[in-house]
TrEMBL record:
<keyword id="KW-0808">Transferase</keyword>
<protein>
    <submittedName>
        <fullName>Aminotransferase class I/II-fold pyridoxal phosphate-dependent enzyme</fullName>
    </submittedName>
</protein>
<dbReference type="Pfam" id="PF01053">
    <property type="entry name" value="Cys_Met_Meta_PP"/>
</dbReference>
<keyword id="KW-0663">Pyridoxal phosphate</keyword>
<dbReference type="InterPro" id="IPR000277">
    <property type="entry name" value="Cys/Met-Metab_PyrdxlP-dep_enz"/>
</dbReference>
<dbReference type="InterPro" id="IPR015424">
    <property type="entry name" value="PyrdxlP-dep_Trfase"/>
</dbReference>
<dbReference type="InterPro" id="IPR015421">
    <property type="entry name" value="PyrdxlP-dep_Trfase_major"/>
</dbReference>
<dbReference type="GO" id="GO:0008483">
    <property type="term" value="F:transaminase activity"/>
</dbReference>
<comment type="similarity">
    <text>Belongs to the trans-sulfuration enzymes family.</text>
</comment>
<keyword id="KW-0032">Aminotransferase</keyword>
<dbReference type="InterPro" id="IPR015422">
    <property type="entry name" value="PyrdxlP-dep_Trfase_small"/>
</dbReference>
Length: 379
């Protein structure tokens, strides 16, 4: 089955009791057992729920894995994945991963005895140099947020596997529509499904997928033991969102491409970060590793422009955190999503005060460009 069909028919695509073409919301915590001491398929909804299970099968198929798990948020999924490791284990992590991942690492996981080194995962040599005898995993994002850095998953997986490391990729920005890390050698792929997979800014959820049976069992064990599961209502809503992933992603890709072309020619725009920029050094890698370039781009206004006036003049494009939804969302990382990072570190990482991140939605692109145009005129 091709990817677009899998979105709709993958996993358990209908209810086996009634034939309902959508898996029902099994709103139950427990299940009637027919014999004492039997081994029922369903016993308690933290451990397993048919609505969640259908979602887990679906995401496993979409990512080309064999086992999926659904969590209460992307952060809960990340926590479960890091819970595979023990006190004294060392993990090499991309230096520009999601801010909440750093918060979890710096304020929770290091306190529990996990060790981390942050490196630029675009630099294979830097990753190699960060390895220690107790290194157990490499954790990365590509494209990254908000500078759209591209790391070579295949090359990193080769390096990691010669050193017996697990490779973990946060695939939130790309989605399996654009990039399938397991096929490129990663061992674990995870998502904040609150973004593109859900796609409508109406839920918070997380997913993991693996291609190894034992690792799948370990993650299900942790999912049940820690307990940050996705409830049946949100599991259903997420499946509904995923059905239209392909049509949404095609619209995101196309709109972002046209907005990039518009911004590139605009006199008030100093710099644009976009994986589809043919002049960018990472373009060849992005083109090879991804099937298209996605709906995310960041840009800087020329010095002397009025950032506040620009943002506040936008009529259609919404000032908000988050990304990956049908509506276009804009934000200023220095003040919003990356505000917790000390300024010197942020500037060193290339995230300037005037950087703007745009999650291009699927509205009519002419309306989006008109909105940007009138707001830029006021900048
Ligand atoms: C939002 C996000 C997360 C965290 O997910 P939540 O669902 O908000 O907990 C993790 N990684 C990336 C890349 C994200 O954008």
């Amino acid at each position: 089955m091709k990817f677009d069909s899998k979105l709709i028919h993958g996993g358990t695509s209908y209810d086996k009791y009634t034939g309902a073409v959508n898996v029902p919301i099994y709103q139950t915590s427990t299940y009637k057992q027919t014999e004492l001491g039997g081994e029922p398929q369903w016993e308690y909804s933290r451990t397993g729920n048919p609505t969640r299970n259908a979602l887990e099968e679906l995401i496993a198929q979409l990512e080309g894995g064999i086992s999926g798990a659904a969590f209460a948020s992307g952060s809960a999924a990340i926590h479960a994945v890091f819970s595979l490791f023990s006190k004294g284990d060392h993990i090499v992590v991309g230096n520009d991963v999601y801010g909440g991942t750093f918060r979890l690492i710096n304020t929770v996981l290091t306190r529990m005895g996990l060790e981390f080194t942050a490196v630029d995962t675009r630099d294979l040599q830097a990753v190699k140099q960060a390895l220690r005898p107790n290194t157990k995993a490499l954790y990365l994002e590509t494209p990254t947020n908000p500078l759209m850095h591209i790391s070579d998953i295949k090359a990193l997986a080769t390096l990691a596997h010669t050193n017996d490391l697990l490779v973990i990729v946060d695939n939130t920005f790309a989605t399996p529509y654009l990039q399938r890390p397991l096929e490129l050698g990663a061992d674990i792929v995870l998502h904040s499904a609150s973004k593109y997979l859900g796609g409508h800014s109406d839920l918070v959820a997380g997913l993991t997928v693996v291609k190894d049976e034992k690792l799948g069992q370990q993650l299900h064990y942790l999912q049940n033991a820690i307990g940050a599961i996705l409830g049946p209502q949100d599991s259903w809503l997420l499946q509904r969102g995923i059905k239209t992933l392909a049509v949404r992603m095609r619209a995101h890709n196309e709109n972002a491409r046209q907005i990039f072309e518009f911004l590139e020619k605009h006199e008030k725009v100093a710099k644009i970060y976009y994986p589809g920029d043919q002049k960018a050094p990472a373009y060849a890698l992005a083109k090879e590793q991804m099937d298209d370039f996605g709906g995310m781009l960041s840009f800087e206004l020329k010095e002397g422009s009025d950032l506040k006036a620009f943002i506040e003049s936008l009529q259609l494009i919404t000032l908000a955190e988050s990304l990956g939804s049908v509506e276009s969302l804009i934000e200023v990382p220095a003040i919003m999503t990356h505000g917790a990072i000390p300024r010197e570190i942020r500037l060193k990482d290339g995230i300037k005060d005037e950087l703007i991140r745009l999650s291009v939605g699927i509205e009519d692109v002419n309306d989006l460009i008109a909105d940007l145009k009138q707001a830029l005129a006021k900048a």
